[in-house]
Amino acid sequence: MPNIDMPLNELKEYMGCSLKTSDFEEFWNNKVNEIKGTKISFEMNESYFQLEGVICYDLIFKGTDGASIYCKYVRPQEDGVYPTLFNFHGYHVDSGDWFDKASLAKFGYNIFAMDSRGQGGKSEDNMSTKGSTLTGHIMKGIDEGPENLMFTKIFLDTVYLVELAKSLKVVDKEKMYSFGASQGGALSIACAALNKEIKKVFACYPFLSDYRRLFDMPSLMGAYGEINQYFKFSDPLHEKEEKIFETLSYIDIQNFAENMECELTMFTGLMDDICAPSSQFAFYNKFRGEKKLFVYPQHGHEWLPKFMDTVIMKIK
Q1: 44, 97, 105, 292: which is deepest, by most CB within 10 A?
Q2: What is the C-alpha to C-alpha distance for residues 128 and 220, in angstroms, rounded to an integer?
Q3: Which carries the bigger pLDDT value, residue 92 or residue 128?
């Protein structure tokens, strides 16, 4: 069976090589507890795009550090209480077109699609940092510790979003799910880890896992190449290497795995040269709850057939 990483039998046993700090749970519990139960400030207006049977909203809420975070929100037109999907997009881009969200709403779901701050969408990046901002969001804020990491703030934005959704009368708080691919897969996992109300997560080749492993695979010079570039230009003698990887551990999704309470469905292509399969298996193998993995031997970091069909079938 082809792969660009470890053989599949080794992948099934791989548990990651990146550290987990002793205060990981305490750090995130404290952050989440500051948000949970608070009233989330937001504005919601009907969008220019509308289709029969659904209502499309432009939604802006105040997220981490008061940043304005934009979401596409689509719900069935008829009043009721509906299951809710939280959708997260890939690195650099945005929440995409209205049409696919509207089609899901036609099935009878609320759907929230968040623009990650500072990327291709409308969300505000109000973050200031003293460290390098040469390239990429993985390393943004790295010199100031986990509090000021860009992805710490994006992870917490998902908590604000879920709290907001719970305040809406049309949201069934017992039927909430998250899904996405690549960065969206990572954020769907972080959302479910930090919001225990999320019952099921669907993660397609998730990003942001096992940074030490990806650093040791220099052929992967996509987004993970940001780590190599940081050392090349900001720490050429690697004097801060141990501290850098310790800080990155706070935004390493595999470190959430053991304490997650939702059901997991994951999708992995063995030819993925962006998010190496081993980094994905590091998360999956540590996950202790009910789980299912779909392996695509000939696929890489691309659209994986039956992903959305599986999501819809498993949340019915």
Answers
A1: 105
A2: 28
A3: 92
Across-strand partners of 200? 177, 263
* C-alpha–C-alpha distance, residues 158 and 155, integer Å: 6
Find the angle CA(253)-CA(293)-CA(28) to the nearest 5 degrees.
Answer: 20
Enumerate the β-bridge partners of residue 85.
Answer: 111, 177
- Distance of alpha carbon 270 from alpha carbon 42, whole angstroms: 41
Mark 58-83 as b/e (b = at least 16 C-beta within 10 Å): bbbbbbbeebbbbbbbbbbeeeeebb
Instruction: Return the pLDDT at 134.
Output: 60
The continuous run of DSSP H or E covering 248 comes out as helix 241-248
CB 14 within 8 A of CB 281: yes
What pLDDT, on the 0 to 100 scale, is given for residue 122? 81
Q: How confident is the model over 37-48, as a mean pLDDT? A: 95
CB within 8 Å of 30: residues ≥ 6 apart: none
Q: In what order do the strands lie in the sheet with 198-204?
A: 42-46, 54-62, 68-76, 110-114, 82-88, 171-181, 198-204, 263-269, 291-296
Interval 239-260: pLDDT, tens: 999 999 999 999 999 999 999 9
The reported pLDDT for the residue numbered 220 is 59
Q: Read off the pLDDT of residues 274-290 as tens digits, 9 standing for 90 and up.
A: 999 999 999 999 999 99
Placement of tokens 């795995």 in the chain: 257
CA distance 158 to 63: 8
Q: Which two tokens stand for residue 36?
A: 């949970």
- In terms of Cβ atoms closer than 10 Å to its own Cβ (0-12, 13-18, 19+), residue 140 is buried
From the list 260, 258, 284, the residue with the least C-alpha distance to 206 is 284
Please tell me the distance from the alpha carbon of residue 21 to that of residue 247, in angstroms, as a whole number.
9
Q: Which of 252, 250, 178 is nearest to 214 (CA)?
A: 252
What residue has token string 């980094």? 279
